[in-house]
Amino acid sequence: MEKELSIRDLNFRRASVLIVEDDDDIWTITRIALRKELPEIKLERAATYEQALTYVTNCVTNDLPLPKLIIQDLYMPCREDGLKLLTAIRTQLAAGAWPQLPILVMSSSADPVDIQSCYRHGASSFVVKLGSIREQSGIYQAIRTFWWETSVLPLTEPTPALP
């Protein structure tokens, strides 16, 4: 009899996170905090709108595994670019039958207009960035607990058709 995989096993299986962050300093803090809190996860970075969209499009069109979670900056460098990217990623994912893939927007902005705009453009969650590695680690610890240990993440790799 085949062993039944736990939620944790499924979530961590070939797991990666796409981080869309244009600021090198924030990327460094994010990378350090994520490696501490989620060492099992492969980290991918896109520094621009074009890189992020190319990454997702390549996964969708070539049946490559998608990341389990996308963490995206809002101001890249301007708000409109971040919102445009959210819409474009959601469009690409829907074209490949992956509209449910979680996209978490992280921003230093706590402006209610920014938050609502992100949700309207397809964000699954919105988190206000904190400055230090210690503060960021707390955020990523919560992300680990919720997304990897509590939730069941969608399958992000091609699977055989169900009978």
UniProtKB/TrEMBL annotation:
Pfam family, one: Response_reg
Keywords: Phosphoprotein
InterPro entries in UniProt: CheY-like_superfamily, Sig_transdc_resp-reg_receiver, TCS_response_regulator
Gene3D superfamilies tied to this protein: 3.40.50.2300
Membrane-traversing stretches: none
Record-listed 4-aspartylphosphate modification sites: D73
Limits of the Response regulatory domain: 16-144
Claim: Nucleus is one of the keywords in the record: no
SMART domains named in the record: REC (SM00448)
SUPFAM superfamilies per the UniProt record, alphabetical: CheY-like (SSF52172)
PANTHER family, per the entry: RESPONSE REGULATOR RCP1-RELATED, TWO-COMPONENT SYSTEM REGULATORY PROTEIN
Name listed for the protein in its UniProt record: Response regulator
Protein species of origin: Fibrella forsythiae
